[in-house]
Amino acid sequence: MEPRTRITYQGKNYVLVDDAVPTLELHTAAVTVVDEPGDPRLASSPRDDEREDTAPGRLVQYYTNGPGYTPTTSTVASIPAGVYQIKLVNMAPTLVPHSMVTDQLLRLPDSKSDMVIAEIDKFWTLKQKFAEHGYVNKRGFLLWGPPGSGKTATVSTVAKQMVDTGGIVILATTSPSRVAAMLTDIRQVEVSRRIVCVVEDIDAVVANYGETDTLALLDGEYSVNDIVFIATTNYPEKLDRRMIDRPSRFDKVVKIGMPNAASRQMYLESRHLQLSPTEMTQWVKATEGMSIAHLKELIVATQCFGNKFASTIKRLRKMTATPPSSSQYLRRHHPVEAITEHVGLRKAEVQTADAHGLHSTVGRKGYAE
Fold first, then answer.
1. DSSP-derived secondary structure for 297-340
2. Where are the domains of the chain?
3. What does DSSP assign to residue 79?
4. What is the pLDDT of residues 56-94, one digit of tens each?
């Protein structure tokens, strides 16, 4: 057996264990042996508050590792409130702060987005009621709708409120299995910290990483407490029924449509436009069916670049017709489902259509609630 190095530190003897993670294991022998005289590992170590070199990454303390101690950088008992991505840093999954750069957030009244935000606010007050019935304090929302309808703005508003109240937001930009493992680790360190996990474009996540891992993240063996999942998609028809049809994965499936007239007027008024009441009415009417992103471009084009209102509206209307929405997809590929989306056929009738080869994910009654 190859001899192991023994080190004396602060009056105690240790053996350097050369496993996958080199660790100092407490040794009871009275004799102290080193490989080389003056071995730097024998030098006395100043306390953390005596160190002059506090560069990031410097080893300043130990963490317990099995029967021994492994040198590590400084540790914290709780991470700051914020938005985080999970990245590999020095081969270890790490929470890296992420800056969500957004325009001024505006909570539009009487909108589906506002309803989602209000329900999440209420959810955080119901932990005791969930516990009384023996349920994990967890909620899931799937937001779907055409591009630019406000899904990302809704997520940003929820994220801001979460950070403002001391919680953390995890962006699922890596594999679902890695996200699930990190959520489990966070919950061990911080038992009751509020967490929002965001899975944007979940249809692309399923395509890249597989449905099994994605389902396990939402409602798997290692589900954690005090968490809200928010997923978004432009194309819910790409998602399997077992992902959408089962509460506790997504308890609410919400269509985020284009802003109504009241919401458009509120947005326009918030941008300090010098418009007369007549002009405001004209702007609100002309932007029917447009997204907040289109309203922003209308303001930038006319107020910043000096373009004409009529030509800008004409250009934006062409842009709104370019990206296919779920309804356009249905009308083109599954016309029967497009009908059920509007007339609300019973689920059994839709399943009958499905038996004839038509996928009925979007056409179910209640899907757009």
1. HHHIIIIIS---HHHHHHHHHHHHTSS--HHHHHHHH-HHHHHH
2. 6-72, 112-255, 261-320
3. P
4. 678 888 888 888 888 888 888 999 999 999 999 888 899
Return left, alpha or beta for 223; rule: phi > 0 is left, psi -120 to 50 is alpha, else beta.
Answer: beta
61 three-state secondary structure: strand
Q: How many CB atoms lie within 10 A of CB 305?
A: 8
Phi, psi of 159, deg, nearest 5: -60, -45
Token pair, residue 241, equals: 């029924």
Radius of gyration for the alpha carbons in the chain, expressed in angstroms and rounded: 28
144 close to 253: Cβ distance less than 8 angstroms:
yes
CA-wise closest residue to 62 among 48, 75, 47, 72: 72
| DSSP conformation class of 42 | G
CATH assignment of 112-255?
A: 3.40.50.300
Which DSSP state fits 43? Answer: S
- Regions of the chain short of the pLDDT cut 50: 1-2, 29-39, 41-45, 48-49, 325, 329-330, 333-334, 336-369
Residues 320, 258: contact at Cβ < 8 Å?
no
pLDDT in tens, 107-126: 776 678 889 999 999 999 99
For 245-308, the DSSP string reads SSTTT-SEEEE-----HHHHHHHHHHTT----HHHHHHHHHHTTT--HHHHHHHHIIIIIS---
